[in-house]
Structure formats: structure tokens, C-alpha cells
Amino acid sequence: MKVRFFAYIREYTGTKEIHCERCQTLKELLEKLSNQYGKKFRAKVFQGENLGPEIIVLVNGRHVAHLDGLATQLNENDEISIFPVVAGG
């Protein structure tokens, strides 16, 4: 599966895109990425056992809030995009 990182999330990962072995769920993928990219990344993507409020995750262009959240099932050919919430004025 392809995982794409946007905005300052790229600073935590050092890359804009990786290819990753299949994970069963979004939570499993984010745990794996958190272990790989460290505390700052984990602090943005997780708040306790939930998805962090400062992060947006899309699976194949669909916001996970409209899927099954962290329980969203993933497939080998999925594209996951991870964005920070952006505020402007």
C-alpha cells in the first residue's frame, strides 16, 4: 500500500511517500508508522486510543470519519493520505 504524508507531517517522516506492507486496519498501520517515526508522529495521529484531532486520514480519497475510523479495513492496493488539520484566516 502507498502512504502519502503532507505539510509538516513530512518533517516527522522525512519523506512524502512510502510503500508499506499490508496492514489489516488503519490502526495497525498508524501504530506501525508511529513506531517507525517516533513520538512526534504518534502524538499527532493518536489521542489515547482514538485518532488525534489535529490529523486527517484519507483512504482512497475518503475521509476515515466516513468509513470505520481506526477500524477501517485496508487492502494491499490502498492509498492512505495523512494530513494535518490546517486552519486559515
From TrEMBL:
Gene3D superfamilies: 3.10.20.30. Pfam families: ThiS. It comes from the Bacteria. Transmembrane segments: none annotated. Signal peptide: none annotated. InterPro entries: Beta-grasp_dom_sf, MoaD_arc-typ, Mopterin_synth/thiamin_S_b, SAMP1_3, Sulfur_Carrier/Prot_Modifier, ThiS/MoaD-like. This is ThiS family protein. It comes from Pelotomaculum schinkii.
